[in-house]
Every structure is written in C-alpha cells, then in structure tokens.
Design brief:
This protein is mainly alpha-helical. It has 17 helices and three strands. The protein starts with a helix and ends in a 9-residue tail after the last helix.
Length: 385
C-alpha cells in the first residue's frame, strides 16, 4: 500500500517511477567528491587569506555554508521525478525576478551597490539566483518548442525579453559583472538549443555595434575599470591598485610558491579583497604555478563531468539545463581568473567554491543539485560517477 502511495506522490511531483533507493544509487558521487576536494583546498587558502587563527570564524562560516550546500545539492537531486523542475521552471524565474525587484524596495547597500536582501540570518543576493533561474526558464521554453530546423528570429522575441528584464535590473544595482554573466550564459543555452549560425553572426555584429551605446550607459567607475585594464600603471594607488598588487602576488609565487601563510602581498595586507574576489592571487603566491594548475585541473574535471551528464540527459530540458549551468560555472572561473591576472576588468565575480561568500556558494550547489538530478534521471542506468 505504501509503495503505491509513494509512486502516486512521485507522479504528482514529476512523473518518475524511481524509488529513493534507485535515485540514491544513481547519484553522481564523483561530482560531489570533486566539489569537496576543491572546497577543502579553498578553506586552506581562505584560512591564510584572512590571517589565520584570529579570523578563523571566516573558515567556520564558509564550512557551514558548504555543508548546507551539500544538503541542498542532495535534496534537490532527490526531489520528485524527471519533470519536476521543468514544471516549475517559470515559477522559479518569476520568483527570482520578484526578489530582484524587492532589492530596490528593501535591499541593503554594500560596497556602493544595492544587491542584497536580509532574510533572517541569511544575506541573499537575488542576482545569484537569477543566474540559475534564467537557465531553467530558457531550457523550459526551448524544450516546449523543439525546433528541428534551427531557431529563427521569430523564435527569439520571448527569450530576449526574458533575458533583458533581469539584466537591466542587475545593471541598475549596479552589478555589471553579473549582468554580463547572465547574458553570456543565456546565449549559450540559446546556441545549444539550435540558433542558426547566420543569426548568431548577426547577434555578434549587433553586440559589437552597440558597444558605444553600452559605454555611454556605464557609470564612471565602470569605465575607469576597463581603461585601467590596459594601463594600470597610470593610477597605481587608485584604480590600478588591485590589478598591480594581484599581478605582483601571482608573479612572485613562481613555480611552487612561497609556502603556506608566507605570501608577502597577502599577509602584509597589500592585496585587497584577498578572501573574496582576489583569493586566487593568494593561492598563486603561496602555492605557485603548481597550485594554480592543480586547481584548474580540478575545475576541468568538474567541467568534463557535467558535460558527460549533459550528453546522457533523458530529454531536451535536461540537456539545455546542464549545458547552461556548466557555462555558468565555467564563465565564473574564466572571468575571475582573467580578472586577477589582468586580462579582464575587475568586475567582482567570485571564484567558484573558493571565494568567501554565502549566496555564490549556495547558488552553485543549487546548480550542482539540478545537474545531479538530470544525472539520476539520465538515459544511462546504474550508478554514474
């Protein structure tokens, strides 16, 4: 009797006949193991970045967030059947959009921007949730419209509106870095859904032609960040300070680094934001090129693992969801590392699983839970690693 009741509840939630033991057996434990290894390494770097034992509360808080993230990942992956997240994709998008609007009414200001909502003990950054929500919404849209001949211009009006509204809200906060990530991730989903190559080329040309308009819409400090990228030495104590100190830290690490808690730039407080945006600079100074390469290798393993999950997805929604979330993870790695080595402007994008921060950590674990859910309901039977 209980088995029949369980199966009925599963159908209501998403239509899966898999019992919880089957779902647990299919859970991608290898993906979780990679995340644990990266996070443990990040906690070691964070301990050094905040100055050791006197500020160990940073490490405990980050550890608690990761453990909460693991619970979130497993819970999300086990919930319902293969259709549950497709069914509620638009609702999650609408809820995230509502939170973005709420930021302007009751959000808190930090570092010159209004980006956070205080909900009990949690400081929530709704733009982080929107990164996942836009992927789910676009995946649902293109799943419902399986376009065999490719996506034409008439198919793009609704998706572009879905992208444009949250992007404008995020820019208004202002948070240019997150807005760029939103657009980039959304474009990856659209391309994966079958965007015609001629239309793709037209979009690229249009984006290039609109750059002067975008430049005029930027705040003065955002324009300074871009100009500083090309000549940070012109303002070494002002706009160029972050990049210069970051380059010194990374370069001085050499092949094997200066050793744990032995980096002069970080330990003597020359390096700003060393526990958040510039934490990779701390890692590179103390563990050198070898430490940075090891972290990149771990990121690549996560990237390949998620692409494998995408290749085995049971439906179009699962495929597009995993492709989009993989792009989100990858773009954050690329932008953060490009930022700290001086190849990209400083835009405040955290390094996944390494930078200190709650919203970013929990959002990434939410994304990993969704990808694990796709893996559990994939075409491949048995345990996936």
């Amino acid at each position: 009797m209980s088995t029949m009741s369980d199966e009925k509840n599963m159908r209501l939630l998403g239509g899966s006949s898999l019992g919880w033991r089957d779902r647990l057996a299919r859970f991608p434990i290898g993906l979780l193991a990679l995340l644990v290894l990266v996070t443990l390494g990040g906690l070691v770097v964070l301990y050094s970045a905040v100055g050791g034992g006197d500020n160990i509360d940073y490490v405990w808080r980050q550890s608690a967030r990761f453990l909460l993230g693991v619970v979130l990942m497993v819970s999300i992956s086990m919930l319902g059947g293969e259709k549950v997240y497709r069914r509620y994709a638009y609702f999650f998008y609408g809820f995230s959009l509502f939170l973005l609007l709420l930021v302007f009414a009751s959000g808190t200001i930090g570092m010159g921007a209004r980006r956070w909502l205080v909900i009990g003990f949690l400081n929530l950054q709704p733009s982080e949730l929107m990164k996942v929500a836009i992927v789910l919404a676009l995946a649902r849209y293109f799943h419902d419209r399986s376009i065999a001949t490719g996506i034409g211009i008439s198919d793009l009006f609704t998706p572009m509106l879905m992208i444009l509204v949250p992007t404008i809200l995020v820019i208004k906060q202002p948070d240019l870095g997150t807005a760029v990530i939103l657009v980039a991730v959304a474009m990856v989903v659209i391309i994966a859904a079958g965007l015609e190559w001629k239309l793709f080329a037209a979009v690229i040309i249009l984006l290039g032609a609109s750059m002067p308009l975008g430049w005029n819409l930027m705040h003065d400090y955002q324009r300074r960040r871009i100009l500083t990228l090309f000549s940070p030495e012109k303002d070494p104590l002002g706009a160029g300070y972050h990049i210069i100190q970051s380059k010194i830290a990374i370069g001085s690490g050499g092949l094997f680094g200066k050793g744990f808690m032995a980096g002069s730039q970080s330990q003597l407080n020359f390096l700003p934001e060393r526990h958040t945006d510039f934490i990779f600079s701390v890692l590179a100074e103390e563990w050198g090129f070898a430490g940075g390469l090891l972290l990149l290798t771990m990121y690549c393993m996560i990237f390949l693992r998620t692409l494998f999950i995408a290749s085995m997805a049971a439906d179009r929604f699962g495929l597009l969801t995993v492709v989009g979330l993989t792009a989100l993870f990858s773009f954050q790695v690329i932008v953060n590392m490009g930022m700290v080595i001086g190849l990209l402007p400083v835009v405040g994008i955290p390094l996944p699983m390494i930078s200190y921060g709650g919203s970013s950590m929990l959002t990434l674990m939410l994304a990993m839970g969704l990808m694990a859910h796709v893996s559990i309901h994939s075409k491949q039977h048995g345990r996936t690693i």
